[in-house]
Amino acid sequence: MALMYIMALCVFLFSTIPHKRWVFLSVMVICAGIQPGLIVKRSIRRIKGTMLALVLMMPVLYLVQINYRLIPVLLIGSAILMVVSGMNSNRYDIKVFFTTFFVFLLTALTVEEITAEGPVEMVLNRAICTLIGVAIILSADYFLFDSYRYGRKLYFFHQLLTYRFLKKKAQELREEKNLPVNRYTYISRLRDETNERFSALAKAAESLVSDLSADLALKKEVAQFQGTLSELRRLLFATCFARLILNSPENLTRNLVDFDALMSKAQSQMLITMHDKDQPVETMAKS
């Protein structure tokens, strides 16, 4: 991380590239998703959004010189769309598109000094700076993550945490002494804890499958494990409902049998690393 910032800062401080601040800004913004796979996805989306906005900017900059009444319309419209698109974190490319359009248009129309750059030169310089920043990010992604198989290890870590969480909650529902006084509060707390744990696992899975080194077989393994975990989540709440609300021993026993079978299936689908392949999952979950 520090090396990435140092490289971008050196380009910003010591190079003579026009609009070189965009190199450092690109590195800073993309590093917000500093996880294997996600950083690559953000880089690709930033390139796509930036390039589309810059291609559109060339005719727009010529057009506003013909009719200056378009300037407030374009500025207000792009500002509104920039804010609205920022609410959807899954479409980073759309946010980058409107942000680039707004900032570039604002910069081009409010410059205090006369510049020799025309619209084409300004667009090309901005594109080159973005590509340099993305190149720094992608090279750092390789040395930080791909060399150490960090994405696979991170996902395996969340697999172990989720496995231990599900096993603990199922054990609580098996024992009479763990019966909560306020059952509805227990279910609400279980829902919040489950959402938190499964959200972290889903993010790690997305990070792993988005990695450039992830092959089709690995993506298939991740999809199979995520499907098994979805069934386990459904069975956990069905067991909780049978235990606390219906108070039905028959449904409870049947759900627990299915739950144990799925837990064994999930255990066999874990992406055990080469270092941990000889250790049982229960031992790794406790460590």
UniProtKB/TrEMBL annotation:
The keyword Transmembrane helix applies. InterPro entries: Memb_transporter_dom (IPR049453). GO terms for cellular component: membrane. The keyword Membrane applies. Residues 8-138 form the Integral membrane bound transporter domain. Keywords: Membrane, Transmembrane, Transmembrane helix. The chain crosses the membrane at residues 22-40, 47-64, 70-87, 94-111, 123-145. Its main location: membrane. It is found in: Membrane. This is Integral membrane bound transporter domain-containing protein.
